[in-house]
Structures are given as structure tokens and as C-alpha cells.
Amino acid sequence: MDKISTKRLLLRKVSLKDLTDIFEYASNQRVAQAGGFLCCQTKQAVLKFIRQLATSQSWVLEERKKAKVIGNLCLYETVNSQAAPNREKRLLGYALNPSFQNQGYMTEAVAGIVDWAANQGIKRVDAIVSWNNLASQRVLEKNGFEIQGIFKAPWGSNLVIQKFIAFYKAI
Questions:
Q1: Are 79 and 89 a contacting pair, CB within 8 Å?
Q2: pLDDT at position 157, please?
Q3: What phi, psi does 57 have (nearest 5°)?
Q4: For the chain, percent of residues with pLDDT exceeding 70
């Protein structure tokens, strides 16, 4: 089990004891939409979300002082042109409790994950962010991610066409 320590955070695997903390941010429509997951309005929905986070390359962000889960971060596997797993490239996704936004927590968490990824032999991390999500764009820029391109794609439960920015970081 990989735990990643940063100055203010412990990135660790999710557990059922995190249900209340995760519900606090996963039930926020704005957070869910930006994070690309369904808004969790019930305990059952949060339990399903926790099961989705229970992977080898997903972590919850525990704020050390309060021992409170304030977000999550995932490195999703990608595939190459032959549809085989690309062991050297991952897609980054994250979500953060609004009460902890704009305090540098996600910037700190992403830096920790990028360091971890480099130690695992991962050579590149990509991220896709909504055109309107300036805070997430700034997190990536602070961590040395560069813009790869801008595109439009359907998003959300009603598949509305939205504008996105693709970022990447060679490590």
C-alpha cells in the first residue's frame, strides 16, 4: 500500500471510515461535475464512489492536522495505439472539498503524485480540465504541466458540448 506524505497531507488508500468526509465534497454538484463523477446525494452513492476509488492508483487526501479527508486524486491507466496498457503514461484526475480550495492543498498533492509516478517509471502524466475551471488549470501550471491542446467534447449527464484544455507533464 503506497502512502505519500507531503507537508500538510497524507495521501493514502480510501476506507469506509472516510464516508462522511467524502460525502461532504462528493455531494457538491460543482465538484462532481468538475471531477467527472456523478454527484453523490445518498450514502449508497458515496459507497459506490468509494468502491471506484479503491484502486491501486487512487488516493484520498487526508489533511494531517484535522485527520480529515478533503479530496481524492487518481492516476488512470491509458492505452497505446494498439489498445495495450501504456505503462509509462497516466491520466490525472482529482476532486477537492470546496472548504479547502484555494489554499494550495491540491497543488501540494499533485506535486507528491508526480514525484511518486516518476519513481514508478511513469514518464508522462496527462490531465484534462474544463475551459472554465481556472483553479485546476492553475494547479497544473504550478506543477509544470504544459498545454497540449484545446478541444470540445460532450460532458456531463446531459452530454452538453464543452471546451476543455489538455495538459501534459513529461517526468
A1: no
A2: 65
A3: -125, 45
A4: 98
Q: For residue 17, give Cα distances in angstroms to 37, 60, 123, 130.
A: 21, 12, 34, 31
CA distance 97 to 21: 9
Sheet containing strand 85-96, strands side by side:
4-5, 9-12, 58-63, 68-79, 85-96, 124-130, 160-170, 146-155
**What type of residue is 97?**
N
- DSSP letters for the chain: ---EE-SSEEEE---GGGHHHHHHHHT-HHHHHHHTS----SHHHHHHHHHHH-STTEEEEEETTTTEEEEEEEEEEEE-TTS-EEEEEEEEEEEE-GGGTTTTHHHHHHHHHHHHHHHTT--EEEEEEETT-HHHHHHHHHTT-EEEEEEEEEETTTTEEEEEEEEEEE-
Any idea what the Cα angle at residue 149 is, between residues 37 and 60, rounded to 5°? Answer: 30
In tens, the pLDDT along 11-54 reads 999 999 999 999 999 999 999 988 888 899 999 999 999 999 99
Residue 145 has a CB neighbour count (10 Å cut-off) of 23
- Global pTM? 0.93
Per the prediction, the chain carries an average pLDDT of 94
